[in-house]
Structures are given as C-alpha cells and as structure tokens.
Amino acid sequence: MRLLHTSDWHLGRSFHRVSMLDAQAAFLDHLVATVRERDVDAVLVAGDVYDRAVPPLAAVALFDEALHRLADAGVPTVMISGNHDSARRLGVGAGLLGRAGIHLRTAPAGCGTPVLLADDSGPVACYGLPYLEPALVRNEFQAERTAHETVLAAAMERVRADLAGREAGTRSVVLAHAFVVGGEESDSERDITVGGVAAVPSGVFHGVDYVALGHLHGCQTITERVRYSGSPLAYSFSETDHRKTMWIVDLDAAGAVTAERVACPVPRPLARLRGRLEELLEDPALDHHEESFVEATLTDAVRPADPMARLSARFPHTLHLVFEPERAAQDTTASYAQRLRGRSDQQVAEDFVAHVRGGNGPDDGERAVLRAAFEDVRVDAGVREVAR
C-alpha cells in the first residue's frame, strides 16, 4: 500500500505579515497532482490543518476545495487535528465526510477505532490520534499523571488492543501530533509544554508498522517506522535550511516500510544575511538572494540611517531586520568606580554611547544634545532647590 504522509499545512498563516494563501494553494495543487501521478492509495494528514482555532474564511474555502479534490480523486484521506486546530470545528460533519472517503479523526475517544483500508495484500488499520492535551483528556484515558507521555501511551494501548482483535496479518498505521524525543524544533511551532512535559519517547508507538507524525516543521526520521513529514512551507527564518517535502511510504505485505521524500514547491527561497549594511548592499556574492525573503542582521557599530529602505532597494523582499553591533574589546580589569573616577557627567554619557556602539563615540551634534540635556537637568534641579 502506498501512503502519502503530510502535515502542518497551517492554512491561513502568514509569513512576517506576508500572506501565504497563494503558496498554500500551490502546495495543495502539488499534493493532488502527486496523488494522481504516483498512484497513492491513501493520504495521511497529521494535524495542524489550520493555523488557528478560528481560521479566516479564505483558509476555510481553500480547505473545502482541497477536500473536494481529494474526494474526486477517489483516494481515501485520513486527517487528525493538531494543537493549532479546533478539534470540534475541524470535526464538524466527520460522519458525512467519511462517506466521501475523507476521514476526520478529532475526538480522543475514537483513538482505538481505525479507518480500515485494504489492498491486494489484505487490510490496513489506520488509527488517528489527534493532539491530546493532557489536562483535557486525562479523565478520558484514566491517566495517573497529567503528562503527554502518559496520555499518548494510554491512547496507544487502545490502538494495540483493537489491533490484537483483528485478523492475522493486518498491517497498522498511526497518525499522531506530538513532540517525539529526537525531533528537531524550529521557531514556528507553538510550544506544547503546557499541561506536562512535552516530549514523548518513540517507543510509545511500538507494535505498529508506520507512525505518521505532525507538529515539528522539519522533515525528519526518528526511526525507520516513525517519521515527521514537516510543514510543506517555511513559516520562520529558522527553517531557511529545510528542504520541504512529503513522504511517500510503501507498506509491503509483511508491513516493511520503504519511504521516499517528494519535494514541495518553493514559492520564494529564504535567506539569512549578516554583516555591515554597506557590505550587504555591495557584495556581488549576494546577487542570488535578491528575490528571496530576507532576514538581515546588521553588525554596524553605529546604527545606519534608513536601513530597511536601503536594504529593500536591493532586496525588495526583506522582511526582518536585526541589530547586533560588533563591539570592541573592553577593559575588564578596572572596576566600575575606577573607570568613572574624575569624569564629568558629560564624559560618562559619551563613554556610554561609545560602549553601546562598539567604540564609536557621539558626533558633534550628539554631544550638543547631551550637553543641552545635562544643562536642562541642572537648571531644573536649581529651580527645585530654590523652591524649597
């Protein structure tokens, strides 16, 4: 059986205030085309279909269109809710959608009830474990502790109990949305530590043939049978080095796994640039980043004038600017009191400016501003003294 494993669509999400809806639509075009061209038998979507519990209408319309296209392709689709989704909202109409081959698994109570698929080698039981927030599902699973590992282990006990009652040779697939030990995080995932320790060991999934994970945005292999597909699009600059893909997973008659990565469309590459402003503006080696989404870290000792406007003239898709000025080495042998001894307030203030600018002190105009400020303070202090 050939499975297409994807997750973390985050429909409706923007990238530093840039709408990603067109890119998300292009990804869904690619997904449907891959289903048809690669003879996929079932699609697995491991949570975070939407980016937030109440998604924008345009994202809902895109999801609705995707469901119709997958149903028209005649290929069963199994989806679970993630920590960004509203499980109740995503699960509306699940019974009716199931008749069209779109199987939504959003209720914790249904963890042990599989979607039954089949090929020439026999049945495949596909179990959907939606994101399980420990504090909310502890009673459902009669868990002793409010922790992710505890509730996920209890859900997997239901899976194994159901699987044990099925005919010999039934292969098994689990969809789960969790942070599994060994996975590598990025900046765009929402923290799920609230409600208990977030990470769970991969061993909690023992006894099944393939585990399709969602939550972490980098495509990665935890074990040969436990994998993250990652998000199909980059949602933070920490994902600059990610290669966005889906997994095509083949299950043979004995449940052995063969997996292949299928690249997703890249709407615009990401670039993290670092250096002084003039260097970034003049370096010919950066020509290939001129159409990229850019995060620039400026190391100028003195913050340059209009840096965003000047960067955008060369890199029109600059989205994020960071200042990390290079600093000259400081004398750490003298005490703070020793460094201040014999210096006027004006000199101390000028020294501070030089310190934060990596050794570049104020110019004449800035010295005049500091001088005027200290004069105003002295005049104000004198007025208050007279008033007493």
Mind sketching the topology for me?
Layout: E1 2-6, E2 14-15, E3 18-19, H1 21-37, E4 42-46, H2 57-72, E5 77-80, H3 87-90, H4 94-99, E6 102-105, E7 115-119, E8 122-129, H5 134-141, H6 148-164, E9 171-177, E10 179-180, E11 199-200, E12 210-214, E13 220-223, E14 226-228, E15 245-251, E16 257-263, E17 270-275, H7 277-282, E18 293-298, H8 307-314, E19 318-323, H9 336-340, H10 345-356, H11 364-387
Parallel strand pairs: 1-4, 4-5, 5-6, 8-9, 9-12, 10-11, 12-14, 17-18, 18-19
Antiparallel strand pairs: 1-15, 2-3, 7-8, 13-14, 15-16
Helix pairs in contact: 1-2, 5-6, 10-11
DSSP summary: helix tally: 11
Numbering strands along the chain, what is their spatial order in the largest sheet? 6-5-4-1-15-16
The coarse overall form would be elongated
Largest sheet: 6 strands, mixed
Per the CATH scheme, the topology name of the largest domain is Purple Acid Phosphatase, chain A, domain 2
Share in β-strands: 15-25%
**How many domain units?**
3
**Low-confidence blocks of residues:** none
Mean pLDDT, nearest integer? 91
Quantity of strands, as a count: 19
* SSE sequence, one letter per element: EEEHEHEHHEEEHHEEEEEEEEEHEHEHHH
Ends: how far apart?
90 Å
Question: Share of helix among residues?
Answer: 25-40%
The assigned CATH architecture of the largest domain is 4-Layer Sandwich
- Protein structure class: alpha/beta
CATH class of the largest domain: Alpha Beta
The CATH superfamily of the largest domain is: Metallo-dependent phosphatases
Radius of gyration: 28 Å
